[in-house]
Each structure stands twice: as structure tokens, then as C-alpha cells.
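Task: complex structure prediction.
Instruction: return C-alpha cells for all chains below.
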Amino acid sequence: MNTRIMHLYRWPIKRGTFSLCFFSLTLALNPSVSVYARTITDMAGRTLSIKDTIRRVLPADPKSSILLMSAADTLLVARARIPGTSFHTLLSPRYLKLPVVDSRNQEEILAKAPDLIIAGLHLPTKSTEQFDILQKRTGVPVVVIDLTLSSLDSVYRFLGYLFDNRQLCNELAFWLKDLFDRIMLYIDNASAPEQSVYYALGANGLMTDPPGSIHTEVLDMLRLKNVASVNHKGGGHAMVSMEQILQWNPQVILTASFRGGDNATASAFNSTIWSGVAAVRNRQIYLIPAQPFGWLDHPSSVNRIAGLIWLTHVFYKRDIELTIGDLRSFYSRFYGYNMDSKIAHDLLLSTKCMER
Amino acid sequence: MHYPDSFKLIILFIICMIAAFVSLVVGHVNIEPREIMQIFLSVIKGEPMQDLNSTIILSLRLPRIAAAFLIGGALALNGSVYQSLFRNPMVSPSILGLSSGAGFGAALAITLGLNMLLTYFVAFAGGIAAVMSVLVLTRIGGNVLQKNLVLILAGMVAGTFFSALLSILKYLADPDNTLPNIVYWLMGSLASVQTMTLIPLAVIILPSVMILSRFGWQLDIMSCGEDEAKTLGVAVQQVRIVSIVLATLMTSAAVCVTGIIGWVGLFIPHCARFIMGQRNSLLLPASFLAGGAFLILADCFSRAIISTEIPIGITTSLIGAFFFVILIIRIGRKSQYD
Amino acid sequence: MIKLTNVACGYGKRCVLVNVNGEILPGEIMCILGRNGAGKTTLFKTILGLRMPIKGKVTINGKSPESYKPRELAQLIGYVPQNTSIPFTLTVFDMVMMGSFAAHGSNAWGMPGRENRKRAQEALAIAGIEPLSTALFTEISGGEKRLVIIARALAQQPLFIAMDEPMAHLDPGNQSRLLQLLQQLRELGIGVLMNTHDPSMVLSIANKVMAINEGLICAMGTTAKVLSSTLLSSIYETDMQIAEACDNTGVKHMVCLSRFCSPYERKL
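Output:
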């Protein structure tokens, strides 16, 4: 975890004329911009000055948008656009009423007059340059948070300190930490699952993510045998061939159910060629729930906690009632949605594709 | 004069067979040639084996090779046909905006979640729209001298327009799932080919190739110019419409299955011209065979060289660019001595 | 027989030529005289059925050109355009063989067959360019190209051949070779319709003359009757004279002398 330093610090006015002009422009547009009273270090180690009290928070990307729904709550002035998604169920309508802002449009950002912008990254891999630029252009401090699955609890603690809203955020952080501890303790004591897993993406099921990818952190955390032994660096998913999948012969297949799009269960798994794969032969195909956000990924934010709870049940046979309890608790705390246990049961049942 | 040409065609066919065989042997799973023979023998005997290797050979590699052959052939043939029709050796399906048009159509169908048949249809509509707009623009804007220039410019216009539409689709698509689907599909891949996809492909491509090859000589005559071809007895309008429709149909079908594969339509016809000379009646079948062999090898390279699949559009563009430079140098040298 | 009745032709609605009447029979050579831009090429295209006449009608053997199927029409009338360019490198033989498409079509593979090759060989022989047959069309000289295209028209075995300025840009050697060829065509019973700017050539070879001036036919008839010094002078708006000349063997020829380079003036 990053150390957090707190200083009293003034905004440094030692930039070029252009920045100065821009700065004064921002000043004119946003009269409340002048009081950057405290200095913090964000999770990427960047030092920046922010206001004493934060009243308006804007997410820079869909991932942090999802995370902030629970943590920033009333401070959130807009949510990020999640492209291709037309509707979300199982989510508090309060969040859906928020206006949508595309952070690529800096005018829109300024129009919302945020006190700070929160940007999510999987640390420590990526450069933060884009956010430095965003900060410079808009004059609004951009705080980077770490979206790595295992450090989500510390993200909430950091946000509590940032927004000076320790009670809510610490509660969420505590809940997450407790969940991690319980699940890790459980799988430490349970027998390791034998089944190998293939994470099928794309309309034909031939896209996947190898172990170590940001998209498969849940699988890695649960120490599941992800068969996709491919070398894939950079963004996006890895393309593999049917031949490789036949060779890997996974015993379980997890498929993302795409909102409004195709998923591999519908088309590819009905073909004869997939029946050569053990998972398809033995009907060990699971459809990953996607409401309100994907359980395993898509996007890779706090929504993955649901996947963690679910897959512990699937692979380590954790008690179903405990699983449902955790899921309900997760939905109510993070999505503001009170899921009754019948819906939770149905959700869990619907994940298993029994018939081809 | 007659004999060596058909001999060359036979050689090209043998090259195709060799490429197909190499492609059968190469892959992530190591299968010995002897075992492949056994698998084929068992199929001939009517008692197909059910093990992993025979599934890989019969349901994966064989359909992929067949699809690569058909699609590579179709794209190359299409390039040759367009070059004659537009009397311009620099024309190819992608330069005319056809690939972008069909690509947009197919991407639209992917986004809307349409079934295979409708996808073919929408892609074809996009392709035809692109080619027609190029034709109309050329007719409006081109006098005889600048026709070639206007043609290329019109192709750029159509290509850019449809790429922009495609970009809109990409921009609106879900970055986590629909977008990678479209993006990877656009870069081209034969990964999703199955035995079933071969049927519509073969039904569209094979008859088109037959018909277009029969137009070979008339296309030669038409490369003298429309008026002259008419006075020589060629039904210009008829040949032109049929060729454009068939060529576009083939490319659209290819785009539907594999996404956009660049360069094959420009680079292979030139290779074929180099080997075969310029007569379309021989050039068209030669282009078809050469394009087929090329794409079989490119696909083999794409799927076997590293642990992930390289989109085949990338492979063909890399190889195509490299060989095109060699071709340009050779043509340049040749014309220096003349 | 090609017959023109009250033909008006031009581009779109704009008439270049009006009231063209005339006919040409197989075995005749008809020359069209006229200034640059007088509409000769347009008239050719109208006769060839590439362009509809604005008024009047063109008939070839009693039917209008559009009513024929393309190949039927191509067996009646061949065309030798002023320039032929082709973006691909085909051989002379390939080019000439194109002419045989009209009569024989292609074989089952869409390729030229044995008949086609035979026809092309004959045409090459008539045009006297057999040695060229394997040369590339793009690499031979302009005069040779002209002969190749004439051979292509011959391979169509048509009743008529329309030639657009066949004499342009030819050196004297090629000119006389072409004149010989025209003579041969007449003997073969082929009607030739051509335009030219060289009155001496008209005098030496043409049976009929059609003279165009200011968008109208100003004279039409047999060469001997029609072609006069005054007619030529009025068409080209320069002083031109037809004279008789004796060559070294004492044979008389009709020649045309134009004022600028006339031997008279040099003598004076």
C-alpha cells in the first residue's frame, strides 16, 4: 500500500504562459477553484493539492464510476458512460439518474465543476501521463486509485480519507477486508479444485485472457487453473485457436454473457467441434452473470467481488447459504440494491448452462 | 505457346496442394504426416476415428484450409477482375472502398446481432453501395484522361466514408466485449471457420469463379476501352454488371467470414501477372490459385507461429508489403532496360 | 450497305452535324473531309451505334445499329480508332485475336480457341505484320499499332471498316503501306469509311467523298465529281489547288498542293 502524506501546500504557479492563461480561464469558469488547501499523494504516488472539503466528484472512467457509486455516494455529480450498455438491473435507480459524462470531453468535465476527478488504474503497470494531461488541461486535480482486486479494501479506506467520509468508506473497506479474509481462509482449508478453467470470450469463444491478466484476477486470486497459457501483453484479449483449446481440454468453461451481444454458449458451443472439449461434453459451462455489471470482469472494478463469492461456491463448494448471504450483502452495500434471496438463488442457478 | 500456360496453371495447382499439406501438418498440436494419412484413410474407409487428432485435422485444419483457399482465391480473382474492368492495374477491392463497405455492413450486422444469412446480405449491400458510389463518382467527375485519378480518389472517398461509419460503430460499441469482437474481426481471422461456414462460402464463391473465368477474354477486350470493346462485339454493360456483382458478392462473403484481409487483392494479381502474363483468361484462374495458396500459408503462419492467433490481416499486410517492394524494384529494373 | 438519312449527331442536345445523307457500299472507300472538330469522330460513333443520332436514322443492311446484337454488329462493321491504349502488356497477336471474338466467340473456358487463332493469323497476314505477332502491343511504334488495329478489325471479317484518321502521324513509308492495304481491302469487298486531312490521299484512293463545312455536308459524291480546288479551299480556309503531276515513269497522278509549302512558290 502506498504511504499517504499530508501537507499544507499552495498551488504552484510556475508554469508557462499558456498554462497560466488556461489556469485563469479555468478560474473564470469555476470560481470555487482557488482553495486547494491540502496536499495528498494518490495511490499511484502522485502528489497533488486538493480542496479541504470535497463536494463534487467526477469519475474519469467506467471502472472508477462503479466503485464510486458506493464510496462517494452523494458526492458523485455524474457517472461515466459505459458504452454498449443500454440498461442495468439490480442497481439502485438513484445511480442511474445521475447524468452521464464522457471524460474525453473536457468541456463537459468543466461544466460539471468537479472538485476532483477519480481515475482508476491497475497499478503499478500503466503510466499516469494521460491523467497528468487531463489535470493540466482542466485544472481539476485527478486522483488515481488502484483497481487491483486484492487492494480494493485499501481503495475504500483511501477514498474515506480523501472525501473525509470515513464512516461509510471504512465500513465498506472493512466489509471487503473481512470477505477477503474469510474466503482466503476457506480456500486455504478446502481441497484445491482439480478442474481446469477456460475463460471464453467473443462471439465464437476464441478470445480469452491468460493467468496474470487484469481480466482474470478473480481466477488467479482463487488459485484456479486457467488453461490459457498464452503470452499476451498489452490491451485487449488474446486470440487463440480452436486447436489450442482442444489441446488444453479445459474441464470448466466460464463464458461472459454479453449485454445485447452474442456469447459463445449460444453459437459456438452447439457445434460439433466444441464437443471435443471436456467441459462441453460434461456440461460444465457457466454463464457469468452480468447485472448490473459483469461478475468476473467487464469492467474490472469492484463488481468482480460478486464473481469472487460465486466462484468460491462453484469451485470450492462453499456453502450456498453463506454465498447468498455474501452476495446480498454485496449488492446492498455496493449497488444500493436489496436483493431478496429468491433472486439470489435464481441468479446462482442461471449461471449453469445445463442444456446445450 | 498454348502448352506452357496450362502447364503453369498445373504447377500453381500443385503449389496449392503443397501449401495445403504443409498447413495440415503445422499447428500447435503436433501430428505426424503418417498419422494424417491414416486419418484420411479411415475417412475413406467410412469409419472415421473419434480421437483428438482426427477432430483437429478433419474439423479444424481442413475447413480452415478450404476456407483460406476459397477466400484467398476470391480476393485475388476479384482484384484481377477489377483491374481489368477499371482499366487500372493499381485497383484492388480495398482501394475501391469495397472492403470498407462490406466491412461496415458486416460490423453493423454483428452489432445488431443478425444471423449469418442476413450478415452476408448486409455486407453485400455495403460492398455494392461502395462500388456503385465509386462508379457514379467516376462517371460524374472523370473525363477520359483523368479517369484513373478520379477512380482512385473516388475509391478513397468511399473507403473513408465507410471507415468513418465503421468507427462510429466501434465508438458506440462496448469496449469490453462488442468492441474487441469487431476489432479482431476487422483485422481478419479464419479462427471461427467451421465446416458449416464452408457451405455458403463455397456456394457463393465457386460458381462466381466459374462465371468470371469465362469472362476472361471479354475482360481483356474491355481493357481496350468501353467503345472499342463494344465495336468488337462485347456486350460491355452486361459483362460489367455481372462481373461487378459477382466480384462484390465474393468479397462480401469473404469479409463476412474472415473480416477485412488487405493486400491479397492487389499483390496476388500482380504476382500472377508476373508469372502468367496479362491475358485474363489465364490470369483469372492463376490469380485464384495463387491467392488460395498464399492465404493458406498466411493462415498457417497466423495460427502456428506464436501462442496466440495473429490476425491474418496483419500477416497478409506484412508479407504483401514486403513482396510488393520487391515487385516494384523488379518492375523498375525491367523497364530501365527496355 | 450503310445508309444515313437526315442524320443529326452531336453530344447531348448539342448538334455538331445536321442533315447528313449518304450511303456506302461494300468495296467502296469513302473519305470524309473536314476541319478539326468538324464532327467526323462523332459521326463515326453514331454510325457504329455507340451514340444515338439526335435526329434521322442510320441503317446498316436495312436495320439500325442498336437493333443488332453486339456480336452481329461487330461482324458487319469494324472500327479502327485514332488511338488505342491498353493498360496491360498484351502481345500483338492477342490484340489481333480480339477481333475474332465477334465471329467465333470464345471456347468453353472463356479462352480464344483454334478458330480464333486461325482468324487472327489470317488477319496478320493480310495486314502484312506477321513478324510482329509476338511483340508487345505497348512497345511497338505508332504506325505499327495502327496496322495492328486494322488487322484486328480485319479479324472481325466485317463488311465495313470505319477508320478514324488512319493516316495521322504515319511516316511516308507507313502511309504508302496503308494505302496498299486499303487497296487490298477494296479488292476483298470491304467498304471503308475513313476521314483524313490529306487530300492527295483522297484523290489517290477514295471512290466517294463527303465534305463537311460549318456543321453541314457541303458536298457529297464521287471523288472525280466533287473534289475541286474551290471546295478544299473553302473547307480549310486556305488556298489549295489540285494539280496533275507526272512521276518519273510518266504515270499521271492527281495531287493537291496547299499554299504554304507549295513547290510553285519555291520555284518562284
